């Protein structure tokens, strides 16, 4: 990798001219002219603000009379224009947030130098130079609105941004709130950054790591048009840290709520549909003090903050009365104990020093520590407490060290460097949740999953993991601004690794029942251990020209990604006792990618009030190191490539418990049919033969990274009134390099196809009774063959598409008589098509291999291979209002989201299958699970949520106290968020929106 590093250094050294601020700060730009309209070169332009540590930033207009002042922090500025022989022009009250470029022009006339003309006017609200779509949530707004102050929860208040786990008032806790996919315009590559540096852990999804909003002065959320500085598209959350001030100030923030402060939104209708228990608040506590000030006036500043957050909530399930009883094989809810609880405790601390070493050089450093204890978590309507994966053991989200250096080398040359070091411990060795609190039980039990409901109970049925994930990320950017043209260059490096252990909490043999009757065994060959080393580096160059009313942007980014696996060993397992293998150091993928970025912004009428914006950009998917055995593309090319993970570590076999003793009376080590057990679905289980191989085209070369995507946008932003703007835009996202897994041991001729008839049901489309065609089943002679899974690109077999198209209409109204509003609507649909590929690879229609959203172990009929979704609309609004004279602060957030897509997974027994298939299912299987609802045709009820805050402000000297009442889910709505997909319990509610509850909030500023 030394060659890449040397290339990066050389690349950044020879390119001594650069574009806009490397770390997403605001700008002021414009042109200076004389009274005749001629441009004025050589005008000195100063931007002064208390927000700047150096107080004043100065540039000079270029030969075209244009200027640009970069890297300006959020705040209010005064812009002053001076030129010998001309009067001085001063523009006051220019407010900047995020990466907004405020266009401030000056008309100068000949006059005495001491004559100053002060120009008043509204701060521009339309950015006529940038194509990026960005929302900015400042510190004041974050504290004013009812929210958990969690980064992803705040992001989901914005139009178009969605999250898999809807959270009311932060009841999921800090760790739980970051879980679940965060998407925008069909892209789920969410990034959380601090000063432009991603804070993801090696195993992280990109949402975790920055759990103390008191450490940051602003949250910038990019949703489209991300520049060449970043490789991913999607939602980009950039947190801007505080710098400090000469005056000591701080605040205390606290929030509290208990179950006695909530209502109930469980209706008889929900009870009749089968909702076992409501998911609701148990207790919520937030304590978050902050303080900072000077150490040496105008030179050295500090701040520090700590945070304690405890979120405890009831899950929609009761404890199992039969837990720990080795003679019992049923789940019996113990309603005398009340619903089971999920608990999430977050403790963190953050401190920062900022040093203005010279007028041109500023250094900063911060240290962030966090500890989380989901104790327990993952309990849900389908996971009984004793089946929980994680127990009472802390998780260390990490220690993070940030170092930064900003140097204004000249009035035009800006250098910014960052370094981030993170060490995280994903999970310590675990124990079962139930047995931890019942030490007298101590019995190794088999997990049971009931097909008719999807409920897992009795014990854990998955491999638990414990991993260490160190990450190191240096980053450098140079910026040179001439006025009419900007040019930028920079690079980032990332070194990350993972040491992960996988083991069974309970028995490595789990059972599957259907209506209480055993029908399948799953064997898990734990334990195993994996090591991964990753290098993820990038360089970029970007140029921007301002020609007349148009601003043109072009950029190119190069990314390098390499994975390797140190030497490893695999020992025996209870279900694979002969396993003992050694693997040498192994190479993984080596990818090189080029991503063009382009955009144009046009000031339509030349008055800075209407901008037409068009952009076309290529982005890459994020690749980290999730748990081995994952089904997504990220795991496929990282964790699952590990030699130890490529072994066949799990397999199924049918089981007919004829004597009803709940013991598989067979030789489990014999892969062939024997006793009560059918053949192993994969006879390579426990052997040295890898379960998968890779197409060399997917492992190396240029522009081969799977799930790369292109994003196009076009729209118009218009200032309707002073401080009020509307943006109407079209977006399209499409994916390339889609991968599939071809089991080369079988082909289309090894399958028989059949159809089934959907049950008659008024809740099914057209009342049910329709044929479900194109269901596949392996021929008996082909079942159990050693698999030869070959991972390759789908386009080698035919067309595979995954597109998102839609429109956003957003508005922004800055404070007008104390009222501020922002929000809008987002409408879009997803289209997928893998018909040509599925015709050659029928196996991709099974479970997560399919492009469709289905559960694992579910067959998607070939008739549903082409899906064009409905256009779905969501609406979001954030509003704040300060009632004059009485100092009452009011705020509201509104979310209106489409209901979840409805699937019906029908368990078709041999009696249902045989009339069409002409035989029983292969491998001794007693049933097959098939989705019988055409995707995109059924949706649950819409989710509407209104949250309110009313606070009274009290002032005493420098101390300002705000006592508030937050009311979440004001209308106590109860839409179903998740429901059973198993047809036997179809549409049984598994979770609903949390009920209305009241929270007390106190904030004291001093």
Explained architecture:
Strand 22 (395-408) and strand 23 (413-425) form a beta hairpin. It is built from ten helices and 57 strands. It has a domain at 2-129: Sandwich (Immunoglobulin-like), CATH 2.60.40.1120. Helix content is 6%, strand content 49%. With 1006 residues, it is mainly β. The two termini are 50 Å apart. The strands form eleven sheets. The protein has a 25-stranded mixed sheet that branches. The radius of gyration is 30 Å and the shape is globular. Mean pLDDT is 87; it is low at 1-23 and 429-442.
The rounded distance between the terminal residues' Cα atoms is 50 Å
Residue runs with pLDDT of under 50 for 5 or more positions: 1-23, 429-442
Strand portion: over 45%
Overall shape: it is: globular
CATH superfamily of one domain: Carboxypeptidase-like, regulatory domain
Tally of helical runs = 10
Q: Overall pLDDT, averaged?
A: 87
Helix coverage percent? under 10%
Main structural class: mainly beta
CATH topology of one domain: Immunoglobulin-like
Major sheet characteristics: 25 strands, mixed
Q: Tally the beta strands.
A: 57
CATH class of one domain: Mainly Beta
Rg from C-alpha positions? 30 Å
CATH architecture of one domain: Sandwich
Please give a quick description of this structure.
The chain has 1006 residues and is mostly beta strands. The protein has ten helices and 57 strands.
What order do the helices and strands come in, and which of them pair?
Layout: H1 2-14, E1 26-34, E2 44-48, E3 56-60, E4 66-72, E5 75-82, E6 88-96, E7 101-103, E8 106-108, E9 116-119, E10 133-138, H2 139-144, H3 151-155, E11 161-163, H4 173-178, E12 182-184, E13 191-194, E14 197-198, E15 216-224, E16 236-241, E17 249-258, H5 268-273, E18 280-296, E19 300-318, E20 339-358, E21 361-374, E22 395-408, E23 413-425, H6 433-436, E24 448-450, E25 455-457, E26 463-481, E27 485-492, E28 495-504, E29 509-514, E30 517-524, E31 528-547, E32 550-565, E33 568-570, E34 581-583, E35 586-603, E36 610-619, H7 633-636, E37 650-654, E38 692-694, H8 696-699, E39 700-702, E40 708-721, E41 724-736, E42 739-743, E43 751-757, E44 771-778, E45 789-793, E46 801-816, E47 819-833, H9 835-840, E48 866-868, E49 872-883, E50 888-897, E51 905-909, H10 910-917, E52 927-931, E53 943-956, E54 959-968, E55 976-979, E56 989-992, E57 997-1005
Parallel strand pairs: 1-7, 1-8, 6-9, 13-16, 24-29, 35-39, 38-45
Antiparallel strand pairs: 1-4, 2-3, 2-5, 5-6, 10-15, 11-12, 13-14, 15-16, 17-18, 17-57, 18-19, 19-20, 20-21, 21-22, 22-23, 23-26, 24-25, 26-27, 26-28, 27-31, 28-31, 29-30, 30-37, 31-32, 32-35, 33-34, 35-36, 36-40, 40-41, 41-46, 42-45, 43-44, 46-47, 47-48, 47-49, 49-50, 50-53, 51-52, 53-54, 54-57, ...
């Amino acid at each position: 990798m030394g060659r890449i590093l040397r290339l990066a250094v050389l690349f950044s050294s020879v390119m001594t001219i650069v574009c806009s601020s490397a770390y997403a700060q605001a700008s002021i730009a414009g042109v200076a002219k004389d009274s005749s309209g001629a441009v004025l070169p050589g005008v000195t332009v100063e931007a002064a603000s208390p927000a700047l540590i150096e107080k004043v930033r100065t540039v000079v207009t270029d030969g075209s009379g244009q200027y640009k002042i970069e890297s300006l922090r959020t705040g209010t500025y005064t812009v002053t224009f001076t030129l010998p022989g001309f009067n001085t022009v001063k523009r006051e009250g220019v407010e900047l947030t995020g990466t907004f470029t405020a266009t401030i022009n000056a008309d100068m006339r000949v006059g005495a130098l001491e004559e100053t003309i002060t120009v008043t006017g509204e701060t521009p609200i339309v950015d006529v130079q940038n194509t990026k779509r960005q929302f900015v949530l400042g510190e004041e707004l974050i504290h004013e609105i009812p929210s958990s102050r969690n980064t992803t929860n705040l992001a989901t208040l914005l139009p178009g941004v969605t999250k898999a786990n809807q959270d009311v008032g932060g009841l999921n806790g800090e760790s739980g709130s970051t879980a679940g996919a965060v998407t925008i315009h069909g892209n789920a590559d969410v990034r959380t950054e601090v000063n432009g540096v991603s804070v993801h852990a090696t195993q992280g999804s990109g949402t975790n790591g920055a759990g103390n909003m008191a450490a940051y002065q602003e949250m910038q959320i990019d949703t489209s048009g991300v520049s060449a500085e970043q490789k991913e598209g999607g939602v980009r959350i950039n947190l801007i840290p505080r710098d400090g001030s000469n005056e000591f100030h701080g605040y205390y923030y606290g929030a509290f709520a208990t179950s006695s402060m909530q209502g109930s939104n469980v209706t008889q209708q929900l009870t009749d549909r089968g909702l076992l228990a409501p998911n609701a608040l148990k207790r919520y506590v937030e304590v978050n003090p902050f303080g900072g000030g000077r150490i040496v006036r105008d030179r050295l500043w500090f701040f520090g903050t700590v945070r304690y957050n405890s979120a405890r909530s009831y899950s929609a399930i009761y404890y199992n009365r039969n837990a720990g009883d080795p003679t019992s094989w049923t789940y019996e809810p113990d309603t005398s104990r009340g619903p089971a609880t999920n608990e999430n405790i977050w403790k963190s601390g953050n401190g920062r020093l900022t040093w203005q070493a010279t007028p041109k050089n500023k250094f900063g450093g911060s240290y962030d520590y966090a500890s989380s204890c989901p104790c327990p978590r993952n309990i849900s309507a389908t996971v009984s407490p004793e089946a929980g994966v994680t127990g009472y053991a802390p998780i260390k989200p990490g220690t993070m060290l940030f170092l930064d250096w900003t140097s204004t080398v000249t009035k035009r040359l800006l250098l910014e460097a960052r370094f981030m070091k993170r060490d995280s411990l994903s999970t310590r060795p675990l124990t079962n949740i139930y047995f931890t609190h019942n030490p007298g039980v101590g019995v190794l039990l088999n997990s049971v999953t009931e097909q008719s409901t999807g409920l897992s109970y009795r014990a854990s049925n998955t491999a638990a993991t414990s991993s260490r994930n160190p990450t190191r990320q240096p980053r450098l950017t140079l910026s040179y601004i001439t006025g009419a043209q900007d040019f930028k260059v920079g690079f980032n490096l990332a070194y990350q690794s993972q040491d992960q252990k996988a083991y069974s909490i309970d028995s490595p043999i789990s059972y599957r029942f259907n209506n209480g009757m055993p029908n399948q065994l799953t064997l898990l060959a734990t334990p195993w251990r994996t090591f991964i080393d990753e290098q993820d580096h990038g360089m970029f160059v970007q140029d921007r020209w301002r020609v007349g009313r148009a601003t043109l942007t072009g950029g190119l980014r190069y990314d390098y990604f390499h994975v390797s696996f140190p030497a490893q060993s695999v020992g025996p397992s209870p279900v694979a006792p002969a396993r003992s293998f050694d693997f040498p150091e192994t190479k993984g993928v080596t990818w090189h990618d080029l991503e063009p970025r382009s955009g144009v912004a046009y000031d339509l009428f030349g008055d800075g009030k209407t901008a037409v914006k068009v952009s076309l950009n290529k982005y890459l998917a994020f690749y980290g190191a999730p748990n081995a055995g994952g089904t997504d593309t990220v795991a496929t090319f990282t964790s699952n490539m590990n030699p130890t993970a490529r072994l066949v570590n799990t397999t199924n076999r049918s089981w007919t418990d004829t004597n009803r003793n709940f013991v598989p009376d067979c030789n489990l080590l014999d892969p062939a049919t024997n006793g009560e057990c059918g053949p192993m679905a994969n006879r390579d289980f426990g052997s040295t033969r890898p379960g998968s191989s890779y197409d060399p085209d997917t492992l190396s070369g240029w522009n081969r990274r799977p799930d790369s995507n292109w994003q196009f946008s076009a729209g118009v932003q218009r200032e309707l009134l002073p401080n009020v703007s509307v943006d109407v835009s079209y977006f399209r996202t499409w994916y390339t390099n889609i991968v599939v897994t071809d089991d080369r041991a079988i082909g289309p001729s090894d399958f028989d196809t059949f159809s089934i008839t959907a049950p008659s049901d008024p809740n099914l489309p057209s009342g049910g009774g329709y044929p479900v065609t194109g269901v596949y089943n392996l021929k008996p002679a082909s079942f159990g063959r050693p698999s030869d899974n070959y991972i390759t690109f789908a386009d080698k077999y035919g067309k595979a598409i995954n597109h998102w198209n839609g429109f956003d209409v957003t508005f922004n109204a800055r404070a007008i008589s104390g009222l501020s509003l922002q929000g809008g609507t987002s409408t879009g649909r997803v289209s997928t098509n893998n018909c040509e590929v599925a015709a050659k690879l029928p196996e991709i229609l099974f479970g997560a291999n399919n492009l469709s959203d289905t559960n694992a172990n579910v067959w998607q009929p070939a008739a549903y291979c082409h899906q064009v979704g409905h256009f779905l609309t969501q609406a979001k609004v954030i509003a704040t209002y300060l009632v004059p004279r009485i100092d009452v602060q009011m705020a509201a957030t509104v979310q209106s989201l489409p209901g979840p897509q409805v699937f019906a997974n029908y368990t078709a027994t041999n009696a249902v299958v045989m009339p069409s298939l002409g035989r029983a299912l292969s491998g001794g299987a007693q049933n097959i699970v098939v989705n019988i609802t055409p995707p995109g045709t059924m949706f649950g009820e819409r989710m509407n949520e209104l949250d309110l805050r009313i606070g009274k402000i009290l002032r005493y000297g420098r101390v300002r106290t705000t006592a508030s009442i937050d009311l979440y889910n004001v209308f106590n709505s109860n839409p179903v968020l998740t429901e059973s997909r198993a047809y036997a319990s179809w549409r049984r509610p598994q979770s609903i929106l949390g009920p209305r509850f009241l929270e007390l909030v106190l904030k004291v500023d001093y």
